[in-house]
């Protein structure tokens, strides 16, 4: 396993509770849209065993063409020890990244793509949308639906409906509206539905999608193969 130590080159305050940490790109570090990585703070590997309290599984919110590795995360006033340390870091501090992989690259199967996310989960989809804007080959259109009860919606400069690009973005701040909109989207029985959020959010979305006739192979989750099958085997009542 290769561990890449790199420096923070910029910290962006996206909203009062959400920050993006932009990291220098190590020379041979590569990734694709929809990637996640293990993001670790200094000292995580100082002992005989890795200190898992200093490691988090994070999505990369940028594309390689942006020349920085973006890590976007919510840091509340009351937060974990990991987030407390992260909040104290400054430009120039070192962090580590390793075990980078993509479970949700943009599929180009000449279908409509629906991006379903909760809160900062939208960060996973930011590079997919940018990749689509860069070249829309074999994607009919993209629709993003995000729920964020804070009402401080993320990346509104990118997640902004653009009919000419066949891209629409919806933001809602409550579950009732979210699930009503989701049911409307399932009128497309051939679409591809990407879901990112907490495990509870994934299960609820899968339940609705399956009840509306969407097949497991149409549902994309940021999960490895084993846990993917566990989520998609959720029982439904039709």
Description:
It is a single chain. With 238 residues, the chain is α/β, with parallel strands linked by helices. The chain has two domains: 4-102, Elongation Factor Tu (Ef-tu), domain 3; 111-232, Nucleotide-binding domain of ferredoxin-NADP reductase (FNR) module (Rossmann fold, 3-Layer(aba) Sandwich). Helices cover 22% and strands 32% of the residues. The chain is built from five helices and eleven strands. Strand 1 and strand 2 form a beta hairpin. The radius of gyration is 18 Å and the shape is globular. The N and C termini lie far apart (45 Å). 35% of the residues are buried.
- Class of the largest domain in CATH? Alpha Beta
| Outline | globular
Q: Let me know the CATH homologous superfamily of the largest domain.
A: Nucleotide-binding domain of ferredoxin-NADP reductase (FNR) module
The largest pleated sheet is described as: 6 strands, antiparallel
Domain FAD-binding FR-type: 1-107
GO molecular function, one term: oxidoreductase activity
InterPro entries: FAD-bd_FR_type, FNR_nucleotide-bd, Riboflavin_synthase-like_b-brl
Protein name: Dihydropteridine reductase
């Amino acid at each position: 396993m290769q561990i890449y130590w790199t420096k923070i080159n910029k910290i962006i305050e996206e909203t009062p509770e959400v920050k993006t940490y932009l990291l220098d790109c190590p020379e041979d570090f590569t990734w694709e849209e929809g990637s996640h990585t293990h993001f670790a703070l200094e000292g995580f590997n100082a002992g005989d065993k890795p200190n898992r309290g200093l490691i988090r599984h994070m999505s990369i919110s940028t594309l390689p063409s942006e020349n920085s590795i973006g890590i976007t995360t919510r840091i509340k006033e009351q937060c974990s020890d990991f987030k407390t340390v992260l909040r104290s870091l400054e430009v120039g501090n070192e962090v580590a990244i390793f075990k980078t992989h993509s479970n949700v690259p943009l599929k180009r199967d000449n279908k409509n793509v629906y991006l379903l996310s909760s809160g900062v989960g939208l960060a996973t989809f930011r590079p997919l949308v940018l990749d689509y804007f860069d070249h829309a080959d074999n994607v009919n259109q993209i629709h993003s639906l995000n729920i964020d009860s804070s009402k401080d919606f993320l990346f509104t400069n990118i997640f902004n409906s653009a009919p000419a690009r066949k891209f629409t973005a919806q933001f809602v701040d409550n579950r009732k509206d979210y699930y009503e909109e989701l049911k409307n989207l399932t009128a497309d029985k051939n679409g591809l539905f990407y879901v990112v959020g907490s495990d509870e959010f994934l299960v609820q979305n899968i339940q609705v999608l399956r009840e509306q006739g969407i097949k497991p192979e149409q549902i994309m989750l940021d999960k490895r193969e084993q846990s993917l099958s566990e989520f998609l085997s959720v029982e439904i009542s039709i």
